[in-house]
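Hey,
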Amino acid sequence: MQIGFNLPNSGPLSRVAEMTRLAVEGEAMGFDYLTLTDHVVLPDTRVPGYPYSEDGAFYEEAPLERHEQLMGMAWIAAKTSRIRLVAAVLVVPHRPAVLAAKMLATLDVLSGGRLVVGVGAGWLEAEFDAVVTTPFPDRGKVTDEYIDAFRVLWTEARPKFAGKYVEFDGIVLEPKPVQKPVPIWVGGEGMNAIRRAARVAEAWYPIGSNNQHLLDTLPRLEAGIARLRQATAEASRDPASMGVSFRVKRYGAAVPSRANNGERRLFSGSEQDLIADFRALEKAGVRAVDIDFGGRSTADEILAEMKRFRAAVIEKI
């Protein structure tokens, strides 16, 4: 199982020195990958609407300052040498398909083949209104079509594509990505996301706390993985070839111990509970887990917790 961590690309810890230090020292600690999130602009986050918390509120007041995701990943690629770089997740409709494919290909080349493209259709309508040219209700269809266009642009010498939202012919996109294929992890917890992963991805990449599609207990996550395996077979792909990666937004005492159905919530409780959860997820077929060590004020505090967590939990899995 690979273990990653979320690299802050917003707020005070996204200052160049702090963000770079967290990436470099996280790599030195032995983490397998780091993640960066994707927002271009945000509305007033005091208004509830966040889908991954119990009450719809952001976990902390969202900062106004935020680096663009792919530019931030390019900066970190230049400052590191081994750790993989995961877009978690790229909101696919945010950028025109050909431009996004070019930026991602460039990032994979410049990083020496360390890119993982986590993808999602997005959820924040106010941000879409400001940034995106395709209709918000069509975001799922747009995402599917753009991903198909990415694959064509990354693999074909003379790429050609004719869709509803993107069309090109008679162009060349070079250099191609180093990785063949570039790994795609599909974020999202509902059946549309699962079907998208089954059709085009190397892995499904859910968060457990989506209130509309909870995967916050082991039985719920196992049921989601079973749906993924069935959808993969229905897409005429080998279910055993489909990976599962899992994002952990909170852990330990920060997680209520019981879900709304009375079952124990994943990554709640003691260090021994967390160790048992990692082992159970690995047995269930999860190949990668990343942890958000946020909620701390300084880089020193985050690095200290990363070191403690590695020694107390990860090294004992």
